[in-house]
């Protein structure tokens, strides 16, 4: 073989190898992109993935040290000069070639849905720095490894239009603007503060209502808190603080919703001229800047800074104006969060204040969340060790909730579900999410990036089996309540003397109606089959010192070795539903006057959940839905006495099919309509939805 033939063979092999490497890289990048898109959508946000056509690194020798400009060519017609912010994921090593890293870039524009661009780059790129002259001194050219901090970008679309972008410290910028707009900056103190006092809001300073696990299933509680599934998400939904007529609450300063012990501490700190006092909460600036400052002002609490999480900093362009209840504009969170978590925001907030207010020497903090308290202790300890501050103290506040109000909970949840259904119906009737700035860009968002598409079904609230146990007869319930109530009140007086008690805080409620035998739904229990009547013998009582009163009960059997002890809770706080069941209890012997037996029926306990339904079924079932909710709240629900029309029942389907009014038609070909789309059938109330997309 000649030398020329060898060179050709070598070049061919090299080209084939490069092509194979490129193919491997393409497949790996595609897998990483799909993984990141799924992660973002799973947390309730949305993103539009873009393909990278070409990429590379351009050296910039304008400064003393050369910098890397990341050149990325994207397969899109979008005007990339509209990019307002670039967020970079943590770098991941590329497994198929050394000295290469991979990141995901989130490109935020004026559109409500951001874009995701994959980027694979070299970490050890060597470049020759040209000869230069500085202040009369000449520096010869030399070879250096180009440092790439992923801050400089040259973005190019497939039409060849370029846009330069430099990442600044975005987190710091947001926090600086937050501090600049604060009362502390507008009215600076005469004496520079030496102490920083930080108060959490929810369940620390204010009794924030939450949904009770005594009523709602675990699955439901998780979904209702998720962002942009059935609405903004519980902690981003202003309805979570809708406790009544706003002006009436304002006039009474939200009486009964404050933790007066922490309020007193806050007043002391506010009055101290050497203390900078701030509220620091994970509640988002939008929409709660319209409410929380007014709530604090009505209580006479004038903080130097109200630290609402500015995430996003500006209001979202995507709204659902829910006219079904007249006054709510619901903002969907379709832009990925700037801060990774509430803890990330709070630590950045503290660091920014210490950077700007250098006179601060000590920090004192109040928070109710155990993980946050633990993390704050570690974080502040590191600040002390680095010499940033001299001292710190973190107070773990027992999380206090407001008085149990199941009717309020049911009303709010019904509004959330109803507004979701109306939004979905509006979408199926042609309404779309649109950009707010319709003059600059009138393009509508595609369905796969539409927040309402995260939950494409109409929903109704239904009771679902949650556990198997014994429901006591009414006579047994009344007997236990009258027998143990004096003892319970005596214990709670002692408990409140030690731990304190405030008007409006959550109180233990009598739940002595049901004894759980098994968390699963089973037909045969250790005490008999479902439907059987069973007796319970009281064998023990929980010791004092806790805000509950529990009984140890046993189903009597001929062979004592086959008897099992179970917990029959009489009084406890609704928020403690899943607390006392996980603990090991040291039972006290039952006194003679309390030794008795009670009767009940082996049955299922029910919690409220959601179920897919048709629009006509929802309208017909509204009255029954409220009755079922009330029965679950009262722990009297029984499926035999509360029959439901199942949305998929054969009887209803056949009836609708005969009337040519079938929301689930048997498609004989492709269809662009969703099977739950009410426009598939001539509903008489198609135009009756009340609400619009903005």
UniProtKB/TrEMBL annotation:
One of its GO terms (cellular component) is small-subunit processome. GO terms for biological process: box C/D sno(s)RNA 3'-end processing. InterPro entries: SAK_HAD (IPR018812). Residues 678-694 have a biased composition (Polar residues). Residues 620-694 are annotated as: Disordered. Residues 620-648 have a biased composition (Basic and acidic residues). Residues 208-421 form the Swiss Army Knife RNA repair protein HAD domain. GO terms for molecular function: histone H2AQ104 methyltransferase activity; RNA binding; rRNA methyltransferase activity. It comes from the Eukaryota. It holds the Pfam family HAD_SAK_1. Transmembrane segments: none annotated. This is Swiss Army Knife RNA repair protein HAD domain-containing protein.
């Amino acid at each position: 073989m000649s030398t020329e033939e060898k060179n050709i063979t070598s070049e061919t092999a090299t080209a084939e190898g490069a092509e194979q490497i490129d193919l491997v890289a393409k497949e790996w990048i595609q897998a990483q992109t799909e993984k990141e898109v799924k992660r973002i959508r799973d947390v309730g946000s949305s993103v539009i993935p873009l393909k990278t056509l070409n990429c590379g690194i351009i050296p910039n020798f304008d400064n003393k040290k050369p910098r890397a400009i990341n050149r990325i060519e994207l397969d899109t017609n979008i005007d990339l000069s509209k990019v307002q912010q670039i967020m970079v994921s943590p770098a991941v090593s590329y497994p198929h070639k050394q000295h290469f890293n991979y990141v995901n870039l989130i490109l935020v524009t004026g559109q409500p849905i951001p874009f995701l661009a994959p980027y694979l780059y070299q970490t050890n790129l060597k470049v020759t720095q040209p000869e230069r002259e500085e202040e009369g001194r000449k520096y010869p050219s030399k070879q250096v490894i180009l440092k790439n901090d992923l801050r400089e970008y040259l973005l190019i679309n497939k039409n060849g239009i370029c846009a330069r972008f430099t990442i600044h410290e975005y987190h710091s910028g947001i926090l600086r603007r937050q501090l600049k707009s604060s009362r502390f900056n507008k009215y600076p103190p005469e004496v520079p503060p030496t102490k920083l006092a930080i108060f959490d809001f929810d369940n620390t300073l204010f009794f924030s209502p939450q949904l009770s696990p005594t009523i709602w299933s675990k699955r439901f509680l998780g979904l209702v808190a998720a962002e942009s599934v059935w609405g903004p998400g519980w902690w981003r939904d202003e309805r979570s603080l809708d406790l009544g007529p706003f002006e009436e609450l304002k006039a009474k300063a939200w009486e009964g919703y404050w933790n007066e012990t922490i309020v007193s501490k806050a007043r002391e700190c506010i009055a101290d001229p050497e203390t900078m006092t701030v509220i620091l909460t994970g509640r988002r600036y939008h929409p709660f800047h319209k409410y929380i400052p007014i709530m604090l002002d009505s209580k006479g609490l004038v903080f130097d800074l109200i630290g609402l999480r500015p995430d996003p900093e500006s209001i979202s362009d995507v709204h659902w104006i829910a006219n079904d209840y007249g006054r709510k504009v619901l903002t969907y969170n379709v832009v990925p969060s700037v801060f990774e978590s509430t803890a990330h925001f709070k630590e950045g907030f503290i660091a920014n204040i210490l950077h700007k207010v250098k006179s601060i020497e000590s920090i004192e903090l109040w928070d109710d969340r155990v993980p946050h308290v633990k993390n704050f202790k570690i974080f502040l300890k590191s600040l002390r060790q680095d010499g940033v501050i001299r001292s710190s103290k973190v107070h773990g506040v027992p999380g206090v909730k407001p008085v149990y109000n199941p009717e309020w909970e049911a009303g709010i949840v019904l509004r959330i579900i109803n507004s979701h259904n109306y939004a979905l119906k509006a979408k199926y009737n042609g309404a779309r999410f649109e950009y707010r700035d319709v003059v600059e860009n009138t393009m509508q968002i595609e369905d796969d990036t539409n927040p309402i598409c995260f939950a494409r079904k109409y929903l109704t609230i239904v009771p679902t089996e949650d556990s198997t146990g014994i429901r006591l007869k009414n006579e047994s319930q009344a007997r236990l309540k009258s027998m143990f109530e004096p003892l319970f009140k005596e214990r709670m007086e002692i408990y409140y003397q030690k731990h304190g008690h405030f008007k409006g805080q959550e109180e233990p409620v009598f739940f002595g109606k049901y004894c759980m035998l098994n968390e699963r739904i089973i037909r045969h229990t250790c005490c008999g089959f479902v439907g059987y009547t069973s007796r319970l013998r009281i064998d023990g009582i929980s010791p004092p010192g806790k805000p509950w009163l529990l009984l140890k009960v046993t189903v009597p059997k001929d062979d004592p070795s086959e008897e099992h002890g179970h917990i029959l809770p009489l009084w406890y706080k609704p928020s403690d539903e899943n607390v006392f069941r996980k603990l090991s209890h040291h039972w006290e012997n039952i006194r003679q006057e309390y030794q008795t037996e009670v009767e009940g029926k082996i049955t299922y306990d029910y919690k409220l959940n959601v179920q897919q339904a048709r629009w006509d079924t929802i309208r017909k079932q509204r009255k029954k839905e409220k009755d079922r909710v009330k029965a679950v709240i009262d722990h009297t629900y029984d499926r035999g006495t509360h029959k439901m029309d199942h949305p998929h029942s054969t009887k209803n389907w056949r009836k609708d099919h005969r009337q040519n009014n079938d929301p689930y038609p048997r498609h004989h070909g492709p269809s662009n309509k969703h099977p739950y789309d009410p426009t598939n059938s001539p509903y008489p109330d198609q135009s009756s939805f009340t609400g619009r997309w903005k």
